[in-house]
Design brief:
3 helices, mainly alpha
Length: 79
């Protein structure tokens, strides 16, 4: 297993470790909220009728905006 620095990936997307940590935690938290809303919606379809789509669309738009700001991101294969 290759040893990877905590700052290697964040640097490839133009962020410090701390900024990347906060951004990823926020992104992940919103994904969890969206997932929970969709699980409830699956059982009770009259609840959270737009929540999952709204969160996914927002996350997508935020990621696209960041890509445009930083230029095309370099994707490296996961090890």
């Amino acid at each position: 297993m290759a040893r990877v620095s905590f700052t290697e990936h964040p640097a490839t997307v133009g962020e410090s470790y701390g900024r990347h940590l906060m951004y990823a935690l926020g992104f992940g938290g919103r994904m969890i909220v969206g997932s929970l809303a969709l699980l409830v919606h699956a059982v009770l379809p009259f609840l959270f009728t737009h929540t999952g789509l709204t969160i996914v669309t927002s996350l997508h738009d935020q990621m696209i905006t960041n890509r445009a700001r930083l230029g095309e991101l370099r994707h490296e294969p996961e090890v």
